[in-house]
Amino acid sequence: MITYALETSCLTHRFSKNEIVLDTINLQVPHASIFGFLGPNGAGKTTTLRLLLGLLKKQAGSITIFGKEFAQHRVSVLQHTGSLIESPSLYGHLTAVENLSLLQKVYQCKTERIAEVLKLVGLPDTGNKKASQFSLGMKQRLSIAVALLHDPPLLILDEPTNGLDPNGIIEMRELLQKLNRENGTTIIISSHLLAEIERLVSHIGIINKGKLMFQGTLAELKQKQDQGVSIIFETNETEKTIRILTDKGLLPLINNGQVLLPAVSKETIAELNRLLVDNGVDIYGIHKSSNDLETIFMDLIKN
Amino acid sequence: MRSFIHSFQSEWLKKKRSLASWIVVIGGFFTPLIIIIARLVHHDQLPQLYSNPGFWVQLWNNSWESMAIFLLPVGVIMATSLVTQLEYKNNTWKQLHTVPLRLSTIFFSKLSVILVMMIQFFILFNIGIYLSALVPYLLVGGVSYPQAPIPLKAFARENGLFFIDCLPVLAIQYLLGLRYKNFLIPIGAGFLCWILAVAVISWKYGYWLPYTYTMFNFLKGQTHGRAIVPPLNIHLLAISYFVLVTGISYILYITKKEKG
Known about the structure:
The complex is a heterodimer. Chain A is α/β, with parallel strands linked by helices. Chain A folds into two domains: 4-217, 3-Layer(aba) Sandwich (Rossmann fold); 228-302, 2-Layer Sandwich (Alpha-Beta Plaits), CATH 3.30.70. Chain A is built from eleven helices and 15 strands. In chain A, strands 7-8-9-4-10-11 form a six-stranded mixed sheet, with helices on both faces. In chain A, strands 1, 2, 3, 5 and 6 form a five-stranded antiparallel sheet that branches. The longest helix of chain A is centred in the middle third of the chain and has 18 residues, at 166-183. Chain B has helices at 2-14, 19-41, 46-51, 55-89, 93-96, 103-139, 152-179, 184-200, 213-219, 234-254.
C-alpha cells in the first residue's frame, strides 16, 4: 500500500563541492493533504520543488511520487502533476485561452476544461487581451489555471499567492481547500505568508539551511511547541524575581529584561504571582509565549 | 508518435503572432514584391522581357540572387533563434519541462516546427515568384503571358537543394538558441558566420563553412571569379553537418543540468 503521495529519501543537492543546498531531505507528503513547505529565503525550498519536478538533475537520493520512482517514470508522474514554480510561465504574445490551448493539446484534456479553469481562477472574460498585458495578479491566476488544467491529483505550487491582492489570496485559499476537499488533491505549497499557510495547510514541513527541521501535522507542530512554551513575567525587579523563583526550585531565565519560566500549571502561576507580590515585587504582566506559526517558525529557524 | 503530434501542435500554436512567423511571410514575399515594383517602374521593357524564351529561368535567377546570398541565411538565423528564444523570453522552459513529454519529443517537435516553417517559406516564396511574373502582366497593357513553359521539375529540384543547403545553418542556430538565454549570442554568432561566409566564398577551403552553401548553390556554373567551385558535393556536406550538429545539440539538450 502506498502511504504517501510524495516521498523523498536522502535527497541531497550541491551547487558546488562546498555548497550543500539540500542535505538528506526525507520528505513525506501524505495523500490528500495540503502540505505547507516553509523556510527562509535560500533555505532550499525552491531547489527541492524543482528537483521534485525534474527541473534540476538529481544528484543523490530518490523521489517517489504516487509510488513511482520519478527518474524512471518521469512522463507518467508528470501526467498527474500540476505545478507553478516561482514567477508565472506564460507566452506573453498569446491570450489566456491560447496559453491553455497549447497545453490542452499536450494533456489531451477536453477543450471545455479551458473555460472551466479560467472561471475557477476568476479569469473568465479576458478575451483577446494578451498575457503580456495582464497584471501580475492576473498572470498568477492564469498560471494556477495552467497547473489545474488537466485536473491533476498532485499540485506543486511555489509561492502561488505572489502578486495577488488580499481578496485574491482568500479566493485562492478557498479554491485550494475546495480542490483538496472535493477531489482529494494533494497540494504542496510553499509560501512566505505564514499566517496564510496556517489557515490553509493540514501538514507542514520546515526547512532551514538545506535541512528539514520538522515535518508533520500542524497540530503536532503546535503540540511540540507547547512542550517548550514559556511563561513570561514582567516585573519591576528582575533580579529579585529571579532569586525568588530560584528559591522556589524553578529555573528562570532572563530575556530582554523579562523573566522566562518553563511551562507550569495555571495553579502554579497563581501561586508564584502571590509569592512575588508578598515579597514586594510589582507585576506588570504574566503571559504565555506566543504559539502561532510565525513564532514556532522563528524559534525553529533560530534553533 | 501521438505525443509527438500533440507536442508539434502545441509548438505550432506558440509561434502564432510571433516575430518568427512574420519573418516567414515577409521574407517569402519581400523579393517578389521588389521585382514587381522594379518591373512596373520599367514597364516599357516588359513586352520584350515577357517574350524572351528564357523568361522563367531569368525570373528565377533574379528572385534567388538576393535570397540565396542574403535573405535566406539571415532569415534562417533570425527565425530559428526567435523560435527557441520564445521559451527564454517568456520564462517558459520550466513549464515546458514539467509537461508529460519526453525530452526527445520536445526537442524534435520544436525542430520540426522550424523545418515546417522553412517549407512554408519556400512555398510562399515560390508563389511570390509566380506572382512577380503574373502581376506586371495583368497590370501593364500590351504584355503577353510568357509563352515558354515553366520548368517545374528544375525549379522543384533547385528548391530542394536550397532547402538542404539551409539545414546546417538551421541546426547550428537551433543549438545556439537552445543553449543560450541571451538572444544576442545566437543572432550575433549567426551574423558573424554569414559575414565570414561572404568573405570566404572565394577561398579554396571556404566550403567547410556551412553558411556558404546557399551562396555556392546559387553561384554554381556562373562563378566568374566570385566564388570557388567546391571540390565536394556541398549538399551531402550540408546533410552531414545537419545530422552531426543536430546530434550534438540533442545530447547537450538532454544532459543539461538545469531545465528552466
